[in-house]
TrEMBL record:
<keyword id="KW-0732">Signal</keyword>
<dbReference type="GO" id="GO:0005576">
    <property type="term" value="C:extracellular region"/>
</dbReference>
<feature type="active site" description="Proton acceptor">
    <location>
        <position position="361"/>
    </location>
</feature>
<feature type="domain" description="Glycosyl hydrolase family 67 C-terminal">
    <location>
        <begin position="451"/>
        <end position="672"/>
    </location>
</feature>
<feature type="active site" description="Proton donor">
    <location>
        <position position="282"/>
    </location>
</feature>
<dbReference type="GO" id="GO:0046559">
    <property type="term" value="F:alpha-glucuronidase activity"/>
</dbReference>
<feature type="active site" description="Proton acceptor">
    <location>
        <position position="389"/>
    </location>
</feature>
<keyword id="KW-0858">Xylan degradation</keyword>
<keyword id="KW-0119">Carbohydrate metabolism</keyword>
<feature type="domain" description="Alpha glucuronidase N-terminal">
    <location>
        <begin position="6"/>
        <end position="122"/>
    </location>
</feature>
<feature type="domain" description="Glycosyl hydrolase family 67 catalytic">
    <location>
        <begin position="130"/>
        <end position="449"/>
    </location>
</feature>
<keyword id="KW-0378">Hydrolase</keyword>
<keyword id="KW-0624">Polysaccharide degradation</keyword>
<dbReference type="GO" id="GO:0045493">
    <property type="term" value="P:xylan catabolic process"/>
</dbReference>
<comment type="function">
    <text>Alpha-glucuronidase involved in the hydrolysis of xylan, a major structural heterogeneous polysaccharide found in plant biomass representing the second most abundant polysaccharide in the biosphere, after cellulose. Releases 4-O-methylglucuronic acid from xylan.</text>
</comment>
<protein>
    <recommendedName>
        <fullName>Alpha-glucuronidase</fullName>
        <ecNumber>3.2.1.139</ecNumber>
    </recommendedName>
</protein>
<keyword id="KW-0326">Glycosidase</keyword>
Length: 706
């Protein structure tokens, strides 16, 4: 159990009696072409049933009249072979119909991909011991359900925590693509249909002839899983790679250059999903250099991929990372609206503006980005981060579905009407042709995929929510636990409890009340460093001084950011009384002695929350230890190591943050804990062998500064 099977373990179901309940004697997969997802579905059903029930069924491509079969096909092939059926008309693109009664199982996809999804759904049910009869249709919430990998051509991964890239090595696409196929299989099982395989900070060399050949090899192994390949582009490629003297999107030479490159790629990868573009952000080139709009830039790529049905994901993460800290009206949270609001309706229909869930950058808590409610004539997608960049980097357990759900279920009240984020990105609310989900994943060659077994619940939940955002976080989690760790009730209860407590705990011991995560902001984004959250050009600021803390984003006195929301929401955030406590410091600058709705002062809440959050992290170790013998040793030890680390690091967090604000405000903790470091073992108290004292930065991370 090294984690490579993830949730597709197909472990035997515990009660032998169940084996007699699955009686189909053969599998009919109505396509014998090996690159076809229907063929894959047949193979997968065979593999899964062999694992779960120990029975090897034959797979045939010929429709059979035998009563006890599992038939999988597309709407077209199924009706050709077996005639019409009632549910057919309700199927939407990528959707499937699954009907299992006794020994007869019918799986029909609206297309090939849908058929494969139906097969995975059936297997997931079997693997979880659900063998009762079912008959239902399932359709996706949105057409775009992609991952974004931030892999560099040299094989490193930006914000990757699980070893080097599975896609690239030494400047080129890897030779051995086996693991890419395995990854595509994993993603297909959660109904992800596209992967952008390279970093948004894109290297122009992805367009080299050798790499385009490589893309074709990657696409070939992903195709049987219905996963399309896409790439990130560097806006300056015409100049830096093509040797033109410009990359102006309105220059016909540049346009022709992109059309030509795109034709070359589609010649090798006829079903390429499209392009992802990060422009004019954090030093990346873009159309603004030529006084062209971001829409001019996006539409240039859109024209190139349009003949092939390709899509351009254009990131709304546009800002200048040299923001002037002394300008009190400056606010990075306003950048998205400043750049995109006036472009609504100016993007081609195959462009999707990809918006991070909040206005800043994957923080432990942010309000939903107001841009979702501002673009009514533009396709949008939400960008989520499975990679725990600011959230413990896979060394802390943080189950993210509850965070994503808060955003997806948030009602932005555009035009005073129900406007939940999930209904905007599904394309429904503003009746758009496209919309969906982009999840930053960053798998690596580590057998666990993400570097941590428990972090895989996040990838699983991402796919499930992209398909159906109305699912509950806990229900998704429990499916994942059963598939990953089996049927033991104590295992289920314990991992559920730990996971559901994990985001609140992390928020408590990192940054609470909407102050942002308080990690080191200069580069690592990992441990505590509240001082770095001011005096930096990135615009992630706490505005903390001796007396008060928080960003004033009101229209009245602040940066005006609250006014970016539709009126009902704007009014809520404009006023301290109606702003929820958990976003108080996001929208308001208040004295440390400000009373929260709970009655506590801001500073006392800080102290208490940090003690509470880190205390919860201590219990994760005990909880996990209680599963010894119920989880295989390999995964048990791997997880235990991380939980012990998290328990320790949460104390470092607690003490650094509390001491920092204690020093700054000079307001004592009511319970006089700050400065005492309960539970903590000091390096200074140990006899050091092979270690030397070292002055740490930031100094608060060690109680004695060393
Ligand atoms: C920031 C990451 C950086 C990414 C950037 C982005 O730290 O590595 O390049 O987001 O999303 O949060 O483009």
């Amino acid at each position: 159990e090294d984690g490579s099977a993830a949730w597709l373990r197909y472990a035997p179901v515990p009660h032998a009696a169940n084996t007699s309940r699955i009686t189909p004697s053969e599998i009919v997969a109505l396509n014998s072409t090996k690159s076809s997802p229907v063929y894959t579905a047949g193979q997968e059903l065979q593999r899964g049933i062999a694992g779960i029930f120990g029975r090897k069924l034959n797979v045939s491509a010929q429709a059979s009249s035998a009563l006890s079969t599992i038939v999988v096909g597309t709407l077209e092939t199924f009706t050709d072979a077996y005639g019409d059926f009632d549910e057919a008309e309700d199927l939407e693109e990528d959707g499937f119909f699954l009907c299992a009664t006794g020994d007869k199982v019918v799986i029909v996809g609206q297309n090939e991909r849908g058929a494969l999804y139906g097969a995975f759904e059936y297997l997931s049910r079997l693997a979880q011991g659900h063998i009762s009869s079912v008959s239902f249709i399932s359709n996706p919430s949105a057409p775009i359900r992609w991952t974004n990998e931030w892999d560099n051509l040299d094989g490193s991964i930006e914000r990757g925590f699980a070893g080097p890239s599975i896609f690239f090595r030494n400047g080129f696409v890897v030779d051995n693509v086996t693991r890419v196929a395995e990854y595509a299989r994993l993603l297909a099982s959660i109904r992800i249909n596209g992967i952008i395989i390279n970093n948004v900070n894109a290297d122009v060399q992805v367009l080299s002839a050798r790499n385009i050949e490589g893309l074709a090899r990657l696409a070939d192994v992903m195709r049987p899983y219905g996963v399309q390949l896409g790439i990130s582009l560097n806006f300056a490629s015409p100049e830096d790679f093509g040797k033109l003297n410009s990359y102006d999107p309105l220059d016909p030479k540049v346009d022709a250059w992109w059309a030509n490159v795109t034709n070359q790629i589609y010649a090798k990868v006829p079903d390429m999903a499209g392009y992802l573009v990060k422009a004019n952000s954090e030093g990346q080139a873009g159309p603004l250099t030529y006084n062209r709009t971001l829409a001019d830039g996006a539409n240039m790529f859109a024209r190139a991929v349009e003949p092939y049905g390709g899509v351009v994901m254009f990131r709304a993460f546009v800002y200048d990372n040299h923001i002037n800290e002394t300008d009190w009206k400056a606010d990075r949270a306003n950048a998205q609206l400043e750049f995109f609001q006036n472009l609504d309706g100016k993007f081609n229909d195959n462009v999707v503006v990809q918006i991070k869930y909040g206005p800043i950058d994957f923080q432990v808590r942010e309000p939903a980005s107001p841009l979702f409610s501002a673009l009514h004539h533009t396709n949008t997608a939400i960008e989520l981060q499975i990679t725990q960049e600011y959230l413990g980097q896979q060394c802390h357990l943080v189950y993210l579905a509850p965070l994503w759900k808060e955003i997806l279920e948030f009602d932005l009240r555009a035009d005073g009407r129900p406007s939940k984020v999930k209904d905007i990105v599904s394309s429904e609310r503003f009746n758009r042709p496209l919309g969906g989900y982009a999840g930053v994943v960053n798998v690596g060659t580590n057998s666990t995929w993400l570097g941590s077994h428990l972090a895989m619940s996040n990838l699983y939940a991402y796919g499930r929510l992209a398909w159906d955002p109305s699912l509950e976080s806990e229900a998704i989690l429990q499916d994942w636990i059963r598939l990953t760790f089996g049927f033991d009730q104590k295992v289920l209860n314990t991992i559920t409890d730990m996971s559901m407590k994990s985001w609140p705990a992390y928020e408590n011991y990192s940054g609470n009340l909407g102050i942002q995560t308080l990690t080191d902001i200069t580069y690592t984004h990992f441990g505590p460093n509240p001082a770095s959250q001011d005096n930096n050009g990135w615009g992630q600021w706490t505005r903390a001084d001796k007396f008060s803390i928080g960003m004033d984003r009101t229209v009245n006195n602040g940066t005006g950011n609250a006014g970016n929301y539709p009126p009902e929401i704007a009014n809520m955030y404009e006023n301290i009384e109606t702003t929820p406590d958990n976003l108080l410091l996001w929208f308001h600058h208040v004295p440390y002695t400000q009373r929260l709705k709970s009655g506590k002062t801001v500073i006392q809440h800080f102290y208490d929350a940090h003690y509470e959050g880190s205390a919860v992290a201590q219990t994760f170790v005990k909880q996990w230890e209680s599963l010894k013998g119920k989880v295989d040793m390999e995964r048990y030890e791997h997880v235990l190591f991380r939980q012990v680390f998290q328990a320790g690091h949460s104390l470092v967090w607690r003490d650094s943050i509390n001491e920092f604000y204690h020093n700054l405000s000079e307001i004592p903790d009511d319970l006089r804990r700050v400065g005492n470091h309960p539970y903590r073992l000091e390096a200074e108290d140990m006899r050091l062998v092979g270690y030397k004292p070292y002055s740490v930065s930031p100094f608060e991370t060690a109680s004695g500064y060393t």
